[in-house]
Give the backbone structure.
Amino acid sequence: MDPWNPISNVIESVDSMKDIVFSVLSSLQQAQQANFATIFWSIWRNRNESLWQGKNSTPYHIVFRGEHFLL
């Protein structure tokens, strides 16, 4: 089974990133929604740190920070 298949279906049926995020969130359980949101936030934070401060994190650190943000 292709783990990206559900996401591919969502991406093909929407017009904006906002629609993708809300479509994915609506298909997840509450705990998964929180995890998705914090990882998404961590990606956004890394993007800003890279752009404005020249800092880059590894993908592992980005996901780790997102997963542990609410703990």
Observations:
- The radius of gyration is 14 Å.
- The chain is about 75% helix and 0% strand.
- The longest helix spans residues 30-53.
